[in-house]
Write a structure and sequence with these properties.
Two copies of one chain form a homodimer. Chain A has one domain. In chain A, α1 crosses α8 and α7 packs across α8. The termini of chain A are far apart. In chain A, β4 and β5 form a beta hairpin. Helices cover 31% and strands 20% of the residues of chain A. Chain A has 348 residues and is of the alpha+beta class. Chain A has eight helices and twelve strands. Chains A and B meet through β9 of A and β9 of B. Chains A, B: InterPro entries: P-loop_NTPase, PRK/URK.
Chain lengths: 348, 348
């Protein structure tokens, strides 16, 4: 589960550890990072939270790509860092605000997910300052010394060869604190990506091979209109594989509908199955509406250009990419609105 | 079940009793009917067959309306006759070709559905002659004297106050011959309307109150492209009732897909439930594709102008109306093609 909230108001309410904040800003000023961050007044803060291994870092990389950003770890820093600096977006890993290092947490019997192991006051002050265009001295934690947990465990397994057993044990051990401190945050998110087992294969034993992924988007969020399939506000099941599109087993199934999520009206788009060929991806893209792409096939192009990213052949990759477009669109609309207000102020 | 075949070739293979033939013709010549029928060379023969009470006569009336035809029983004849004469269409009830009257059938132990009770040779000769533009002496049976069965039993009940018990008994008695002689004809139809019980109400006891209706259209029939929902050649379930359209219980559900029907590739569009208000009907119409309507909302207009016809609030009325458009379109394309051939012949 990855939860995302676009903070466009004056008050920010960010995600706690196992989260990142992405700062989108216009190109008006240069940025010094990581020790000092300066941004213009057109800053939008995106909060991103979720479980270990759910794909937060992959999402951030997709978002940076959608923004046309050459996002990379800060020069001279740890190349494994979750911190990314680009032309338009700066990504801060909120693990940087841990107040207790690993030995200290161990001594007090706390996990990194516990609020008592994190300095939320400093996080709040610094993100607020950045949002207001002021520079901050941001703490930088060293991943190599083991003072931070590595939050992206599933990717770590793929990329660093850790054993499934040790990862599963690590996730299981933090489960109570995940349930207590991380999971409840999804109720505040404007968009949620849920990862579930497939329903296409009866009695599927191999968990995680084929995924069913849901994109839950809150209704009535300004500049953030939900994606839909064919007929907005109705309920639809769609199997695109048929006469015009052939798919290999177990095929692809989409569902679209609406409902409530923690008391909020939401739209839900679900994809079960995976893409095997380019034409399947493009076919699906052309039948989705409100994607906020800038040209025909942009989602397909993004997915193909990062085919090596985890989840590029299933709903996690597709929905992360789509959310990238929605965030870009939201950002551009906010900037345009502020520019219009500023122009009016100059006239008056 | 109503089955329909458009005969556009030189050979006609019409439906046996419990069927009608509709002759569509251009307005080049005047027509004397019922005793003598003359038509121009632009004649298209539509065969229509199906079970007693399935709505064949209602379908013919809807078709005549779509064609803008003032179709009415022949002057001076029985006003209850199934024969209709209009400006563009002439409807012949194939019961007129019974070779045995009711007493004769009773004496030999045959139902009216039995081929031995019908003169197919005369039917073939006369329809062929009409198709070729020659006049015929067509037998006319008198419905009042009881020499013919009344085929539209469900409508008869509604319109003439017959008891459900006597109708059910009559249908049950003819069931073996229906299965043997009428039902198998659907495999030759280009379009079939199937009427089934609803799935919207669990354990529905009141059979026939809410209907689930399927429009099955053969693929690759010239000038007769199947209707589809959202994405041609895929599989879709659609509940239009939702945020934009509110429906009363039990709502409306559409399904669209494809498959084989007696070895033929077919498209299948299914509607479960019924319309309560104009906006529901219009909303559904605007989301269906390939209807062959001539203007926005024509199906809704047709349905509303015959709101008193049986099935006007469910899939039977909608699909009969749509088939009317498809037949009108087919006819106009055939006429245009023949006119083009004729024009070329004049030039050469």
């Amino acid at each position: 589960m990855a939860a995302l909230k676009a903070h466009t108001g004056a008050t920010t309410s960010l995600y706690s550890p196992a989260g990142t904040a992405t700062l989108l800003r216009s190109r008006k000023r240069r940025v010094a990072f990581p020790s000092r961050v300066r941004v213009s007044c057109s800053t939008v803060v995106i909060g991103l939270g979720g479980d270990s291994g759910c794909g937060k870092r992959t999402f951030v990389r997709r978002l940076a790509s959608v923004l046309g950003d050459g996002a990379a770890p800060p020069r001279g820093g740890n190349p494994e860092s979750n911190t990314l600096v680009g032309d338009t977006a700066t990504v801060i890993c909120l693990d940087d605000y841990h107040s207790l290092d690993r030995p200290a947490r161990k001594a007090r019997g706390l996990t990194a997910l516990d609020p008592r192991a994190n300095d939320f006051d400093l996080m709040y002050e610094q993100v607020k300052a950045i949002k207001e265009g002021r520079a901050v001295e941001k703490p930088v934690y060293n991943h190599v010394t083991g003072l931070l947990d590595a939050p992206e465990l599933v990717r770590d397994m793929a990329e660093r060869g850790q054993s499934l057993g040790s990862i599963t044990a690590s996730i299981e051990a933090r489960k109570p604190d995940f349930d207590a401190y991380i999971d409840p945050q999804k109720q505040y998110a404007d968009a949620v990506i849920e990862v579930l087992p497939t329903k296409l294969i009866p009695d599927e034993e191999e968990v995680g091979k084929v995924l069913r992924v849901r994109l839950i988007m809150k209704e009535d969020v300004k500049h953030f209109a939900p994606v839909y399939l064919f007929d907005e506000g109705s309920t639809i099941n769609w199997i695109p594989c048929g006469r015009k599109l052939s798919c290999s087993y177990p095929g692809i199934r989409f569902a679209y509908g609406f409902g409530t999520y923690f008391g909020h009206e939401v739209s839900v788009l679900e994809m079960d199955g995976q893409f095997d060929r380019l034409e399947e991806l493009l076919y699906v893209e052309t039948h989705l509406s409100n994607l906020s792409t800038k040209f025909y096939g942009e989602a397909t192009q993004q997915m193909l250009s990062h085919a090596d990213f985890p989840g590029s052949n299933n709903g996690t990759g597709l929905f992360q990419t789509i959310l990238g477009f929605k965030i870009r669109d939201l950002y551009e609309q906010i900037v345009a609105e502020r520019d219009a207000v500023a122009a009016d102020a100059v006239k008056a």
